[in-house]
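endopeptidase La, pasting as requested.
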Amino acid sequence: MKSRIRILVYLAVIAVVAMLCFYPLPYYITKPGMAEELAPIIKVEDGYHEKGTFMLTTVRMGRATPLSYGLAKIQDFHEIFPTKQILQQGESDEDYSTRQLHMMDTSKNAAISVAYEAAGKSVSYLNKGVYVTYVVENMPAHGKLHVGDVVTKVDGEKIQTAEDLINYVSTKKAGDSVSIYVKRDGKESKHTLKVKAFPDEPKRVGLGIALETNQELKVKPDIHIDTEKIGGPSAGLMFSLEIYNQLVKEDMTKGHLVAGTGTINDKGEVGPIGGISQKIVAADKEGAEIFFAPNEKGAAGSNYREAVKTAKKIDSDMKIVPVDSFSDAVTYLEKLKP
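Structure tokens follow.
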């Protein structure tokens, strides 16, 4: 009898522990990630080497469990977000991951373009259809097209850009049929969809998909960037600096450990990111001496201002440098003493 009670207690304890550790809550937890050296990730053909290091910084994020939720409440630099602040309406965890990886690819292309043009190298683009970034619930594409699909043709005509598809569908009336050809996992399929008015904009019709032109970047010399496990656009600035440093003879690091964060577009403009405090903690832990932070043109609540406060809070010796553009960062590095 006692042995049976012990077994039942043991099983109950296992069930409670499993619930605390694995039961998913409708929240996400973010916390400091790591600062990772970029040179092993980015390889420009016959590129120059550096004495110092450029580092990207990351934030770790995962679905909350009762245990992680409780710990986040008492630990510094752990933040809790309701799922609706992370996922778009109707978006699954898988869709979110796919969207983040595509945002990384877009950011990577912008970083390559900015760095190569700054170094006076050849850059060109090849349009390869239209990438689906979001599917609206209760619209024609829902359940048929997925995030990550690439639209190649509409009604038999090739599609080169997102604008091509948007303009074509806008000429249709509610109820008209459109044949969409998409590539998914290397296979092409055809879907016939009926154009529908948007519930919140009755005068506007569509299929219910958010789109982005899928472009392949052509550059010389060749470049390879291994970002298989990295999502989101926040590494754009640091990618551009590492690429540029491998393209030019002068070592921009000058022997220093340089970390940072910020999105970048094809004009070289640096944009804000989430989790700046957590990235400051990660960079400081890895011994970074300099940290580039988005300045947001001096806005009161900018990433830069938050980064300065966090560095002071953790008593970091890092120099926090505000940047609004790729050229701001390059100008700072050019004046940096070895």
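Note for the archive: The two ends are 75 Å apart (CA to CA).
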